[in-house]
Amino acid sequence: MNVKFVDRKGEQPRGVHFYAEKKVSKLDRFFRSDAEATVTFTNQKKGMVKAEVAVNAGGTLYRGESTTSDANASVDAAITAIERQIRKYKTRLAKRLHNEELTSLLAQEEDEEEQDDITIIRSKKFTLKPMSAEE
């Protein structure tokens, strides 16, 4: 996973960047190698640090942010939010795929039943005369 760091309103220590890279790399198990992560640190008033983590994987964007007095705690909270989003998305996808499989299986069974049970009992023919516009 490619990780980019952006520091706004001041620089973060190198140890914070190393810690954030270690935490973000744990998200690698959810994605293929084409995922890109951007970690943005913003120094705010009263010693608060805002950490924004955005992971772009296969056209899907997962984003988490947190503001605390400790940069490492902000990264942890943002990563937790992203993990929650990933689990939610994967569960939703699995349910949808499961429902699609069930409906396709049911449709196949109905088609097979219809093909096996069709017997012609009686057929009728009618001769129709054309109608005029007044009728």
Terminal Cα separation, in Å? 75 Å
Q: Report the uncertain regions.
A: none
Helical content stands at: 40-55%
Please list the strands of the largest sheet in the order they lie side by side. Answer: 1-2-3-4
List how many beta strands DSSP finds: 4
Q: Give the overall shape.
A: elongated
Largest sheet: 4 strands, mixed
Please work out how many helical segments DSSP would assign. Answer: 2
- Secondary-structure class: alpha+beta
N-to-C SSE string, H for helix and E for strand? EHEEEH
Can you characterise this structure?
The chain is an alpha+beta fold. Helices cover 44% and strands 24% of the residues. It has two helices and four strands, in the order E-H-E-E-E-H. The chain has helices at 14-25, 71-117, and strands at residues 2-8, 36-43, 49-57, 60-68. The chain has a four-stranded mixed sheet. The longest helix has 47 residues, at 71-117. It is elongated.
